């Protein structure tokens, strides 16, 4: 079971078990990041949907692998209007690597998210990035560091933590640690099922001063509009961009709508630590 007491899908359980055994970096990382909230605001002011385009060679939920130089793919996404990039560094199930992230981050001028299954502080030191993913569902267990400790450790290194949640309880934990960037994952990692209604049910509980990202299941212009109307400041999109010409796909989704995100609740008891 995970920290929430729920069974995980076998594929996810295998990924998490591998992550728990992965070492960290030899030296403490210090990051001078590009501001993700500022990039989101700039894209919206320019009339673009803020999209975090994901360089994803493969995954347990997709068929096959995507060939092509990852730097060229990343540059195509940025040329198509991507506000930021997400780069997989998980090696065993997603075909990612820290070396690939380093190459991409050196080649583009947008914030780069390290997407991995980080469960211990030392693993933060594997590579520098502008943002790092912390998955609430996988933290606070006996054999992982706590979400609060990892969030603080990430900020101490200069990272902007993107705290991923799927349930209201996980969202409350993210807000309690002062997360300034939160991603709501429409994919249930217990069943690997996708429901865009997950974002719609939780978004109104996120304060307006938090940068809110909709994740998973966003494939069409209609999906983009639906998430923006529900309050998404930005959208993380992988498969729909990777399947085909990445620049064309990114352009299609970043220009899918001129809908601004709906106002969420204004009063908050937590203070953003990344703005």
From TrEMBL:
EC class: lyase
Residue stretches of biased makeup (Polar residues): 248-257
Keywords: Amino-acid biosynthesis, Aromatic amino acid biosynthesis, Decarboxylase, Lyase, Tryptophan biosynthesis
Tree of life domain: Archaea
PANTHER family named in the record: INDOLE-3-GLYCEROL-PHOSPHATE SYNTHASE (PTHR22854:SF2), TRYPTOPHAN BIOSYNTHESIS PROTEIN (PTHR22854)
Classification via CDD domains: IGPS
Organism listed in the record: Halobellus salinus
Stated name of the protein: Indole-3-glycerol phosphate synthase
This protein's pathway: Amino-acid biosynthesis; L-tryptophan biosynthesis; L-tryptophan from chorismate: step 4/5
Species lineage: Archaea, Methanobacteriati, Methanobacteriota, Stenosarchaea group, Halobacteria
GO biological process, one term: L-tryptophan biosynthetic process
Region span, Disordered: 17-36, 248-275
GO molecular function list: indole-3-glycerol-phosphate synthase activity; phosphoribosylanthranilate isomerase activity
Ranges where the Indole-3-glycerol phosphate synthase domain occurs: 27-252
Family indicated by similarity: Belongs to the TrpC family.
Keyword Lyase appears in the UniProt entry: yes
Key word Zinc-finger present: no
Chemical reaction(s) catalysed: 1-(2-carboxyphenylamino)-1-deoxy-D-ribulose 5-phosphate + H(+) = (1S,2R)-1-C-(indol-3-yl)glycerol 3-phosphate + CO2 + H2O
